[in-house]
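Troubleshooting entry. Yesterday's outputs looked truncated, so today I'm pasting the complete records for two proteins to confirm everything comes through intact. If either block looks cut off, that's the bug. Protein one:
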Amino acid sequence: MKKGHSFLVILGFLILIFAAPAYSWQGRMAGMGDPYGLLEDESDFLIHPAGIAKGQGIAFYGHYRFTWRDVKDWNYTATALDPTTGGLIETWPYRGSGHEQQHNGLLGAAFPLGSGRMGLFFEYLGKRGDFDGDEDNRAPGDSWYHLYRLENHLDSFALRLLSGFPMGDFKVGGEIQLAHRREENRTFFNEDWFGGGVGTRNFITNDIFGQFIEWTNLFPFMFPFDSKSYEAIFKGSLDGALGAAKISLTGRGGFIFSGDNKLKTKETYPSAGSIDMDGNVEGWRLGGDFWLRYPLKNGLSVPLVLRIEYQKKTRDGDGTGTGTYAGSTFDYENEQRIFQVEAGGGIDKELSKGTRIAGGLYYRYLQNRNDFLLTELYLPQQANYDHSGYPDQTEHRLTIRLLGEKEFSSSVAIRMGLNFFYGWVSEDYKFAYTDIVTPSDNYSTRTSLDGNRWGINASLGSTFKFQRFSLEPFIGGGYENLNLDGDGFNGYYDAPVEWDKKRKEWFIGGGFSIKF
């Protein structure tokens, strides 16, 4: 073992000696709040692969970032009111909190290939979230106290192959990315915990009925699933000049294949039962990035950015029930569609050699729609639990980016960034229950929420250049707040309802980049 460690140390030392001179890398952008498109940076080729053709020699890259998110409040409250008196029929206040940790790592190299260059990178994205809370369900003259827990996991491993070549006054390039992802959302609900002094009544893992049983409804937080899939992404890229302006244009698209999805619901005490469903994961995405930088005079330039992306992912499954659910068959489909457009620009001013400031204003439109349809077949009965547009969220967001950078010497530079955003958010929640045999049991509900989401974050970073490598540490942190409320109509109670949804969190993180 000791010999193996010594070999790695010697190999690393030899690489540092014979590698090419170092320049700034991905940590530079992280130290300024990731202002991609606002500043020019070597790591831009991770977005526009044609840019990799600009380099020389062999270069090795490494990058790691860790982020810790502490969610102080993650709550929603649904209240049904008497349509005649306006008094309380029943209320369901969910009060949760928790934390989430995120990891992002990149390791690779770029090297000459004919008249151009090629890059090979390995990328890892990871997430671990753990949240818990309680729900003090109340009605006139009665109450129940419940506990719940939420968990989300993500592991994504990607292999990225990039290439870029000169073609006249332009550079062209492309990227092929192959990723394997494991994603899981789990929910746990301890129903009627010491309610009325009778002790625990039921424990539910991955409740799939949602608003049909309002007092166990965790769908406003997340839908449960356990999926594995592969995704292939392809990029085509162009980089060059049109007159005085510099442009970078990249189109991308991809699809999910060999997906496998599982969803298991389990109940215990006083009657035990489970539902085991197996299915698939499918999806695709399409989008593009366009950057334009127009130089004016005296080190001043105007950068413009446009980004468009649409992605769709579907998880489904079917299976049979046991115990309480014996004799029933179930199938479901969960579909998520995300469409976003971001556009904006700013100014980039070089005050003197190695000293610059920049700022920009950006608009982002984001639409996120989630549908969840569950069908239960128990001959001759059939029931549909339709959570279409649950939720259907739309956000209009404005973001201000400010940053500064200064080189104190050829070996040391320091930088910082400040971002602030404010978004106008609307969410629609819709649910319909349909019983084929007993139409009199059918009902539907709909609630519309409006409000805002805002946040601020600051970053600080530096570069230390040595003879054969550069090191770029960075740190950052911030705060975000979501606040929504609204009303609607609940067909089960035949009464108006009021809803609110809140999430408050702060985050802190850091990491480093290295190039040699």
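Protein two, checking that the full record survives here as well:
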Amino acid sequence: MKKYNTEQIRNLAFVGHSGAGKTTLAEALLYLTHATERMGRIEDKNTVSDFDPEEQARRISIGLSVLPVEWKDYKINLLDAPGYFDFASEVLVSLRAAEAALMVIDASAGIEVGSEIYWNYTEKIHLPRIIFLNKMDKPNVDFNVQVSNLHQQFGKKVIPLTLTLGAGEDFEGIIDIIDKKAFRYDGFKKTEVEIPEIRKAEVDAAYDEIVEVIAMTDDTLMNKFFEGESFTHEEIAEGMTAAMLDGSAVPLIAGCATTGAGLDLLMDAIVKYMPAPNDSRAHSGFRPEEGDPVVMDPTQPLRAVVFKTVVDPFVGKVSLVKVVSGTVKKGDALISLRTGESLKPAGMFYERGKEHLDTDEITAGDIGAFSKLEKLSTGDTIATNADAIPFKHVKTPEPTLTFAIQADSKNDDDKLSPSLNKLQEEDPSFKVERNKETNQMLLRGQGNVQLEAMMNKLKTKYGVNVHRIPLIIPYRETIRGKSDVQGRHKKQSGGAGQFGDVFIRFEPIPDGFEFAEEVFGGSVPKNYFPAVEKGLEESLSKGPLAGYPVTGLKATLYDGSYHPVDSNEMAFKIAASIAFKKGVEAADPVLLEPVMTLKITIPDEYLGDVMGDMNKRRGRILGMEQDEDGNQVVNAEAPYAEVQEYAIDLRSMTQGRGSFTSEFKSYEQVPHEIAEKVIEEAHKEE
């Protein structure tokens, strides 16, 4: 691949609903630009971007792929991101590294949930967009109906740059509105044809709409427009870029990825209208921790950001970087601003799927990769100057679903933690933790597909076999009443014996454990107080009801007795544990469960269903409010046991439009009938 300056580079993130055809479109553009000799198919498991075995097995994209292509003296970095909601963090990563988004919409399905979500997000961050209306060859697809729907959903800012020749199964080509030319496609080959006479007025009207939008971006163009003067191609290009950047225009290209129709016009639109990385008006996803945003200038000192990490069992760690300023050259002395360590990449290249295209430099605005920088992590800033200001880390979505897993064998268990850490490096939205209380290995993420994919990756990439096990709810036990008991331990077996005798008063407190003593007259020597306290503390780990930890307890040692020869610390520890068991059982013990606070964001039409469902989960609705996007935000509380898989259920209830966050609130008493079942299950397991 030849060298390109910053003005010749375009970075474009593919977004849209799962199944809209993003990967197929990427494959078609690779073929169109001669980056590949034949066009791969998802069904044949031979696409460039979906090269991971898990992607091929599921026939969906799981990770971000960077696919550089060359078109008319421009380099375009296509960032093919997953459409499935479980992998939304990969979309955020791709949008961070791009100056514009290509929204792929399936014309046969219309505007789907993923299109809505990513449209709203790109609107919020003011990212320019181009829409590719895909699958125009499908039966019953009507271009005008689709454009009308887009106008109703997204507004008149959606501006078609093309019309279609034929519709549905009779679709045969594209009309370029700006150049007022028509093309018939035979696969990826096109032939110019006459615009049908009956369509010319339609083309003229569409052209006038485009020109009017462009005129609004500049006073000089506005004057030319009112005076009836024609715009030059340069003025149209500059005006369209300005309209995209100020959010007043979203160009639309129609076509079909599988047949190649319209793809050349799409590529032309990308290089003509998309902003270059060094355009001062362009969106930048990389913000310095302090100071003004950075313009991507190759003459400035080097700063680059690792925006994605890929860990290959054979190649090692690959760090995908966006050069924000300066130019990095092979052999440069690099520094990680997070650790201060010097970096020596084993290789520097452009990544295209799993193919590595070697390069000796990567300039500002471009995307490249380093290999085998093991101490470099996603989000790290690289520079040549240790005093450079690093860039902020991107915020990843909080996990909403948890799986508990167990290794199949001791050998698998030995490899489990390091393998999970590598998967976590690739996807920061995937979290791993060992629960100290239950000792379960927990996988936390955005949904069941993501977590199942990670479990499969453990096997296919690292040879680690695991299976899912029931998630243990961390219940607690406490007391509601008071008790006053004696704990006596006496053992005589020849020689020195053991003797400890304590009287302890138990009473409830709001939380935790508290030990006090009110011993008078030396009935229990002070040097045994720590042993009594330790015996009680060790007993807290297993309550009498179901073996769960005990909390909310105050124990007061107020009397006892000792033997001058047989008493020792161990004897008093045992006596305290005997008193604990008797005292808790006599003080009306109850089971507690963790309760979560939830913040549920949903469109208004799902409010009734979500509230009704929350009531079935023993939840409490605390209040509602409306956010800036017009969605309802429901604040609720619910037992953790009832919302373990709420991420799956909410997505089903709202067709993917709902989202939520949750955090631990407190422990509350479990209703009697449910507590009985929990206790019974605990005894069965014992």
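Both blocks look complete. Sanity check on protein two: The longest helix spans residues 410-426.
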